[in-house]
Amino acid sequence: MKKYRIGELAKEMGVSHEYIKYYEKNNVIQCERDAESKYRYFSFADAGKVADAKRYRNLGFTVKEVKSFIWDYSLDTSLELFRQKIVELSEETFKQNERIKYMNNVLNCFPSGRFIDNQWYIIEQEEFYFFPHTKQNSFFLNEKDSIRVQKWIDEQPLTSKTLEIPLGEEAYFMDYDYLYGFMAEKDVADMLKLDTDKPAVRVERGRCFLYFFEARTPDGYCGNHVPPAVPYLDKPLAVMKQCGLVPRTSTGYCKVIHRARGDEEGLHYYAFYIPVV
Fold it and tell me: What is the predicted pLDDT for the residue at 222?
């Protein structure tokens, strides 16, 4: 049977010399060395192993797993690994789709490049969770809950930076009477296996008043500005009153849509979610 030098095999398989050396080093393929010339020689069967290695790697398996597929795994073990990889890829596909959905939602808020400031809608909002992180510009979680919230932070933008703001009269007297945290719809929380026990808050599926607004601050993009409740609750609550809409929760949720830098000011774009009966 004909033997191939590393350059010949690489050319026939459309890969680099380094590619062949890498899989040889990891024992996926095994060469023969000429005793006198020290040249590597590979068999035609090694070409098949190179093709198999590419297939398994493209499926997302590690090099160690690729080696075991080719040399060790039984049929039952191989099929079980396929099942596990399907679950893993399904989760990653879900995340990628949610990331695309997030960016499309941001773009939809800027038709013709301008924000939909002061526009409002009545929507059917899916069940969601809110996990608080800070209160009145300070961290308040205990050590255990601080660890739990880390995954909520890590999974952005599938989770959204959000403020929980009281809708009662007290909201008009305390500029920063809010909880700052992260919001996620139930299907996202379930897929990501987020911890939704207390202090996380569950808001049931139902009608929701959705109000978009823009805030401008002098501190530029990197400032820590969070909109006080007083100026920004007036308009949405007035619209709700005109429409005869009654809140079904004691708080509203202000989701951060986007932040950018203007010429001399920070541009902050938000959406209020107020569950209504």
Answer: 46
Distance CA 81, CA 41 (A): 32
Cβ atoms of residues 212 and 143 within 8 Å: no
CB atoms within 10 A of CB 114: 9
pLDDT, greater one: 48 or 184: 184
Predicted pLDDT at 160? 95
d(CA 277, CA 272): 16
Task: Print the SS3 string covering the chain.
Answer: CCCEEHHHHHHHHCCCHHHHHHHHHCCCCCCEECCCCCCEEECHHHHHHHHHHHHHHHCCCCHHHHHHHHHCCCHHHHHHHHHHHHHHHHHHHHHHHHHHHHHHHHHHCCHHHCCCCCCEEEEEECCEEEEEEEECCEECCCHHHHHHHHHHHHCCCCCEEEEEEECCHHHHCCCCCCEEEEEEEHHHHHHHCCCCCCCCEEECCEEEEEEEEEEEECCCCCCCCCCCHHHHHHHHHHHHHHCCCCECCCEEEEEEEEEEECCCCEEEEEEEEEEEC
Cβ count near 66 (within 10 Å):
21
User: pTM for the full model?
Assistant: 0.80
Instruction: Name which of 90-99, 138-147, 256-265 the model is least confident about.
Output: 138-147
Name the amino acid, one letter, at 203. Answer: V
Question: Looking at residue 137, what is its pLDDT?
Answer: 67
Round to whole Å and give the CA distance between 151 and 159.
9
CB 255 within 8 A of CB 160: yes
What is the share, in percent, of the chain residues with pLDDT greater than 70?
Answer: 90
Query: pLDDT for 38-53, tens place per residue?
Result: 788 888 888 888 899 9
Q: Would you put residue 186 in left (φ > 0), alpha (ψ -120 to 50) or beta?
A: alpha
